[in-house]
Structures are given as structure tokens and as C-alpha cells.
Design goal:
The chain is an alpha+beta fold. It has two domains: 243 residues, Naphthalene 1,2-dioxygenase Alpha Subunit, Chain A, domain 1 (Alpha-Beta Complex), CATH 3.90.380; 112 residues, 3-layer Sandwich (Rieske Iron-sulfur Protein), CATH 2.102.10.10. The strands form three sheets. Strands 1-10-9-4-3-2-5 form a seven-stranded antiparallel beta sheet, with no helix packed on it. The protein has a seven-stranded antiparallel beta sheet with strand order 11-17-16-15-14-13-12, sandwiched between helices. Strands 6-7-8 form a three-stranded antiparallel beta sheet, with no helix packed on it. Helix 6 packs across helix 9. The longest helix has 29 residues. It is globular. Bound molecules: FE2/S2 (inorganic) cluster and fe (ii) ion. The site of fe (ii) ion has 5 residues, from loops. The site of FE2/S2 (inorganic) cluster has 9 residues, from loops.
């Protein structure tokens, strides 16, 4: 790394973030084919618990079956296409609000009113369309591509690395989440998250409250489309809480999810859901033992939301506007040979993965 050719790598052209065609290509070739975060397993603890969500234009739900398994289905009735479930809750059967067809928790049609004597009607052959699902460190991921490689092959070694940093991560439970609109393309938000060149400029509180900036680095994890952020914990007066224990680690799983282990094992997540070419919803999740939010955790959540999280919202909105400017000529990336907090190697990786996904 760090030769002169690399120093001249330029940022992606504005159209990657503003053109409808690129957005549609990312939808079809990337989001419809990659592992997408659904929710933490602890959000559907009991039989019949469900939670709905979307991957761009595709509505889905995860539900806990009678056998204890979590499954994911497209949220669409196999009769004439009405949505089945809304929000989150618990149910004995999945019942369509249109003509009351009902489905078992494993997706099989249970009853379709007044079809018993219908010639040729084969209810046993009707089932909701299931989506691939995996549980990764306690987090549910789904993939709309039936041919998708398992997560362990997509992100080789990453789960082991997370477990090495936070051995009891699977014992965490969902504690709190907040989300908001980001007025930018999803890739603007993801890039902003994955570089810390701006941290000292824009995030003084994070830089003094959670991490030791001198030790910060972001690099691709082996052959996986994963960016690993590492840093020593910030200790002393300015730390937000008792940061003794583990270091800081964050694992960004391309294209739109990141798992963060704050020092001492405080687990939290970011995920991004594209809404349109210039709108993204960002979700910030926090996890604790038993799902309890004690005062010290609430203080960290509030501090993070009021500083780092909010500071980034302003940045990405202005960048999106700039990327649509006729005057924008993509600049050279700052690829510091020593890597570290002031390098944009991670951005070069994201651009490589984006090009691979959408360029013909
Ligand atoms: S569309 Fe669901 S029962 Fe008719
Ligand atoms: Fe930031």
C-alpha cells in the first residue's frame, strides 16, 4: 500500500450518488443480493413474534416459528398481493387483511375462506415466499438472493474476530434504537461512517470520549467486503463511561450495516436503509445484557446522539448537494502510506466495491 499510483486515486464521480440508473443498479445487483440486517434475535423472542422491515422496494418480515426457528418471508399474500403484517407484534397465524387467507408461522397456507369445494384449488401447494436467513453474533441477516453464499463465506473470519473482541456478544439483547432521515444517498452516509479523517475536525466529543485517535485505523478485513475499525480506548477524565476492558472495534459489513464494540464491550450498531437516490434512513441500535438501559448506558446513547450522530447528519446533507454540483471534480483520496486516522484507504475500498457492484 502507499505507492504513488495509489496516491492519485480519485473519488467517485457525482453520478454514483445522484443518478437514478446507478441507484437502480445498486438496488438490483447489490441490495437484492447481499446480506441485509433485519433485527436482533432478541426482538422476536417468543413463538409468533414478528417484525416487518424493507430492503428498498421489497417488504419483508421475520417471525419466530413454533419450532423456535426465526424465518423471513416476503410480506406479500399469495392470493392477490396485499401486505400481510405491519409493524411488530405477536400472532398465532398470519392473516391477510384483504380476503382473510391465513398462513401458519412456517408460511404454509392454513385456510382460504370458501375454497374447500373449489375445483382445482390446491391449498397445500401455497406457501409464503421464504427468504434466506442467518443469525450472525445474535443479529438476524437476510438475503433475497436464493443463491447467496453463506455469511461465513461472504465475510470469512469476521465472526471469529468479533467473538475474540467480545466473547459474550450472543448474550446481548436489544435495548434501544433511534432512527432518522439522512438527506443523502446511502453511499454518502456509508462513506462518512467509514472514514475518520473528519473526526478531529467534526467529532471532538467522540475523539475524546470513546477512542484514542492516535491509534485509530480502518482497513479491509482479509478478503471480506468488511472494513474493520480499530482503536485503543480513550481513558481518563474525558471518557464517556468506564472504558477499561476491551479496545474499540467496529465491523462494517458491505453494503449497509456496522457492528460496533465500544471499549469494555458496549455493543451498538448502525444500519442504513436507502429510501430513494437522495434519501436514506439511518438506525442506531444499542444492546445490553437483558435489554436493560441503565443510567450509564442512557448517558452514552444521549451523548452519541447529540454529538457524533447529529454532526454527521449535517455533513452528509451538504455533501449530497455538492455531489450534484456541476462544479464538482472528484478530488484525490488522501491515501496516507502509514494509514491511520487521517487516511482514506477505506474510501478507496468502498469505491472499488461500488464500482464492482454497479459498473457493467
Ligand atoms: S390478497 Fe390476501 S387474501 Fe386476498
Ligand atoms: Fe462522522
Amino acid at each position: 500500500m502507499g505507492d504513488t499510483a495509489e496516491v492519485q486515486v480519485r473519488a467517485l464521480a457525482g453520478r454514483y450518488y445522484t443518478a437514478l440508473e446507478v441507484y437502480a443498479q445498486a438496488r438490483d445487483r447489490l441490495f437484492h443480493r447481499s446480506w441485509q440486517f433485519a433485527c436482533h434475535l432478541s426482538r422476536i423472542p417468543e413463538t409468533g413474534d414478528y417484525l416487518t422491515f424493507s430492503v428498498l422496494d421489497q417488504d419483508l418480515f421475520v417471525i419466530r416459528g413454533r419450532d423456535g426457528e426465526a424465518r423471513c418471508f416476503f410480506n406479500v399474500c399469495q392470493h392477490r398481493g396485499h401486505a400481510l403484517l405491519e409493524g411488530a407484534g405477536r400472532t398465532r397465524l398470519v392473516v391477510c387483511p384483504y380476503h382473510a387467507w391465513s398462513y401458519n408461522l412456517d408460511g404454509k397456507l392454513r385456510n382460504a375462506p370458501r375454497t374447500r369445494n373449489l375445483p382445482g384449488f390446491d391449498g397445500a401447494a401455497i406457501c409464503l415466499t421464504e427468504v434466506k436467513l442467518e443469525v450472525f453474533c445474535g443479529f438476524i441477516f437476510v438475503n433475497l438472493d436464493p443463491q447467496a453464499l453463506p455469511m461465513a463465506k461472504t465475510f470469512p473470519g469476521v465472526e471469529q474476530e468479533i467473538l475474540a473482541l467480545c466473547p459474550d456478544i450472543e448474550e446481548r439483547a436489544f435495548a434501544q434504537e433511534h432512527d432518522t432521515q439522512e438527506y443523502c444517498n446511502w453511499l454518502v452516509a456509508v462513506e462518512n461512517y467509514n472514514e475518520c479523517y473528519h473526526c478531529k475536525v467534526v467529532h471532538p466529543t467522540f475523539a475524546s470520549g470513546v477512542i484514542d485517535t492516535k491509534s485509530y485505523n480502518i482497513r479491509a478485513f482479509g478478503t471480506a467486503k468488511c472494513l474493520q475499525h480499530t482503536a485503543k480506548a480513550q481513558v481518563g477524565e474525558t471518557a464517556w463511561y468506564d472504558t477499561s476492558g476491551s479496545d474499540y472495534g467496529s465491523f462494517f459489513l458491505w453494503p449497509s450495516f456496522s457492528l460496533q464494540i465500544y471499549p469494555s464491550g458496549l455493543v451498538n450498531t448502525y444500519h442504513w436503509r436507502p429510501i430513494s437516490v437522495a434519501d436514506t434512513r439511518v438506525y442506531r441500535g444499542w444492546y445490553s445484557r437483558d435489554g436493560v438501559v441503565d443510567d450509564s448506558l442512557q448517558k452514552v446513547i444521549d451523548l452519541d446522539r447529540d454529538t457524533t450522530f447529529s454532526e454527521d447528519l449535517e455533513l452528509v446533507k451538504r455533501v449530497q448537494r455538492g455531489l450534484g454540483s456541476m462544479g464538482y471534480r472528484p478530488g484525490p483520496l488522501v491515501l496516507n502510506p502509514d494509514e491511520g486516522i487521517d487516511s482514506e484507504h477505506s474510501i478507496a475500498k468502498l469505491h472499488e466495491w461500488m464500482r464492482e457492484a454497479v459498473d457493467v
